[in-house]
Amino acid sequence: MTTVRYLRRYRDATRMNHWYVVLMFIAAGLSGLAFFHPSLFFFTAFFGGGQWTRILHPFFGLAMVLGFAFLFFTMWRENVLDRADREWLAKAPEMLKGNKEGMPAVGKYNAGQKLVFWAFAVSLLLLLVTGFMFWSPWFVHFFPITLRRIAVVVHAASAFVLVISVMTHIYAAIWIKGTMRAMTRGTVTEGWARLNHPLWHRKMTRGE
Amino acid sequence: MSSLQSLDIAARSATTVQPPDIRHRPQVQEVAKLIDVSACIGCKACQVACMQWNDLRDEVGVTGGTYDNPTDLTPSSWTVMRYAEVEPEPGHLEWLIRKDGCMHCEDPGCLKSCPAPGAIVKYSNGIVDFISENCVGCGNCVTGCPFDVPRISKTDNRAYKCSLCSDRVTVGLEPACVKVCPTGAIHFGTKEAMHQYADERIVDLKERGFKNAGTYDPAGVGGTHVMYVLQHADRPGLYSNLPKDPHISPLVSLWKGVAKPLAVLAMVGTVVGSFFHYMKVGPVEAKEGASDEDDDGHGVKAEIIEAPPAPGESPPSSVPPARTVHDPASPPPRV
Q1: pLDDT of B275 over the 80 cut
Q2: Which of A162, B73, B83, B276 is the most exposed place for a label (fewest CB within 10 A)?
Q3: What is the mean pLDDT of residues B143-165?
């Protein structure tokens, strides 16, 4: 009889928190993209038309940011970049070509994951602050027009950064097999941990 | 306004194709309203005519201590007289009264910044009109306008402004404010004719000593279809802060111009790029032992390591014991 070992990567509370943010991201993202470019205006159909999309979008966004705030405080310490991350980033292009051998051993998160985390955090903060500046009809009149012009541009640019980061996040989970179960089940296989996060694997199994 | 004309739409908000434009320039002539500030007596008949023709009744507000009434443009006051007491030269008082409202820019910032298809249109004759049934109430037109003209209604969350009486102009009538002006300070016609008339007025004004008299038709927004004759055209700011060189904010034009299509392209590119990356490089997979995660556990015991072992708890070994084990399919192992 063989033994397969799994390593606990996320608590259930963290996973539910994550999936709540995912749902809110889809809602806020689609409703926001509807106003991002005319070719995407048809997304308003999912929300009951243009006026409803405009009404709902800020609430979706706020709900997403609040959900992410919990995730942020759960895992920001593990995402602080250090010197080893620089080496990882320098070798990342080779990894993308399929050569994983030369990569430095990483802990719970590699530099790419950390950067995605901070991209989420910064873009969501900017989206939150600038979003209030032209939230019609509740907060918009507190801000002068020049500030609102800047806010609209920064909001759209931050949304772009967030969407690209999420796409990267999703693709990484598809590309690295066995990753998805960290969020669907909360555990990963020992082989996955050894291959992708050897230092974390060592810590989990030997306490080092 | 609602959508009336459909064959002469020169530009349409949030629309990437050419809207119906078979009736276009030059056979459709550019129109303009010319407001001769030097002939205005500030009677507000134009405000009343605007209310009457458009069936608008603003709420009774408060006075700001001047003749400005209401004190600003509102969703139902599409034109407002602004009264400025200024001394263009020291000791020489002038009362400059400007009829404020939409300037109907040839390059409209509101239309450029609007994300709702068809909520703002520019007709071939140059009139910029809000098709309010398509408005989503986001307020981008307010940030796009160089003249601070559009106003969002608190009751229906839609933007409103002067339509230049597009419904009247369509059937060959002049705008209501033009019809009612008792001094002939407001004129309406082809833009060319209005420029000719303005030039005559400027000759008169210069003879009367206003050496800087001129027409306000700012080039920064491609010219406007509402123009002013100003006694002091070198200082439009005297007229209740009429901007000297209005233009669409670079924040609006950059973002709504080249940045948005590029951003959409980048997002689509990321998805397509990821797809081809996966197909070319293939997935990264761990080599698991006798089983994989999809195995239901026939003959396989599953353990979950919940957390790192506490310091000194157990020695490292090739098969270290798990701290917590749980597997619904099999009884708890002995540790």
Answers
A1: yes
A2: B276
A3: 96
In the set A37, A57, A155, A169, the catalytic residue is A169
Q: Is cis: bond before A137, omega within 30 of 0?
A: yes
Residue A68's identity, in one-letter code, is F
* In chain A, domain spans: 6-206
Fold type of domain A6-206? Fumarate Reductase Cytochrome B subunit (1.20.950)
The answer to whether residue A45 neighbours chain B at the CB level (below 8 Å) is: no
Chain-chain contact of B137 with A2 (C-beta, under 8 angstroms): no
pLDDT band (50, 70, 90) for residue B315:
very low
Walk me through the domains of chain B, giving residue ranges and CATH numbers.
9-233+246-256 (3.30.70.20)
The whole-model pTM stands at 0.88
Contacts of B326 in chain A (CB under 8 A): none
| Cβ distance of B283 and A176 shorter than 8 Å | yes
Query: Is pLDDT above 80 for B328?
Result: no
Inform me whether the C-beta atom of residue A51 falls under 8 Å from chain B C-beta atoms.
yes
Q: A6 touching B, CB under 8 A?
A: yes
**Per-residue model confidence (pLDDT) at position A101:** 83
Contact B260, A162 (CB under 8 A): no
Asked if A50's CB is within 8 angstroms of B303's CB, the reply is: no
User: Which ipTM score applies to this complex?
Assistant: 0.89
B267/A163 Cβ within 8 A: yes
Encode chain A in three state secondary structure. Answer: CEEEEEEECCCHHHHHHHHHHHHHHHHHHHHHHCCCCHHHHHHHHHHCCHHHHHHHHHHHHHHHHHHHHHHHHHHCHHHCCCHHHHHHHHHHHHHHCCCCCCCCCCCCCCHHHHHHHHHHHHHHHHHHHHHHHCCCCCCHHHCCHHHHHHHHHHHHHHHHHHHHHHHHHHHHHHHECCCHHHHHCCEEEHHHHHHHCHHHHHHHHHCC
Assess contact for B157 and A137: CB atoms under 8 A.
yes
pLDDT one-digit tens code per residue, B37-53: 999 999 999 999 999 99
Q: Give contacts of A 63-92 with B, CB under 8 A.
A: none
Residue B34 has pLDDT above 90, yes or no: yes
